Amino acid sequence: MNTTQTKYFALCALLMSLMAATRMHHFGSALHLPDASLAVFLLAGFLVASPLLFGALLLEAAALDYVAITHLGVSDYCVTPAYGFLIPTYAVLWFAGRYYARIHQNNLRSLAVFAGIAFAAVNVAFLISNGAFYAFSGRYPDLSIAQYAARIAQYYVPYVAAAVVYLVPAVMLYVLFTRRAAAADANHAG
After folding, report:
1. To 10 degrees, what angle do helices 86-103 and 37-47 make?
2. Burial profile 64-79: b = 16 or more Cβ within 10 angstroms, e = fewer
3. CB 3.0-4.6 Å disulfide test: which of 81, 132, 152, 183 passes with 85?
């Protein structure tokens, strides 16, 4: 296995492990980290171009949800006909990561572009998953616009914050490792 393949498998394993370790608690608590799935799909799109990883992450998310519900006592409240809308939710994040990978540059301006793309993608993901749940879950057949707005206000900040909790350290690690790699390359060239 060459160095590129080793890095690829290490990144895949890291991202899948992060999702597995955090998927049980969407917003986190004093004892549990929030769900890293949003950040994992975005970072996977950026770092690992393989659509196979996207499919593997979707299967992993479903398997983790199944185990959590059937064996760990996690509520199945969110598993409704709207559950299938997690596929386009995660696809938005994946494709945002893929898009950013194509335009990425190693400079501070590019980090601002990443922040904007990540923020937009997480917001679109929220609109898809949240909107689909209220529209298609069958749990809120008579929900008014005012009630929906109140529910958005309740869940929006924790949803976005869960992604930010992982994206900020990921960006910091990426900058650290790319700068070290550039410094090592410069030392070897000189």
Report:
1. 40
2. bbeebeeeeebeeebe
3. 132
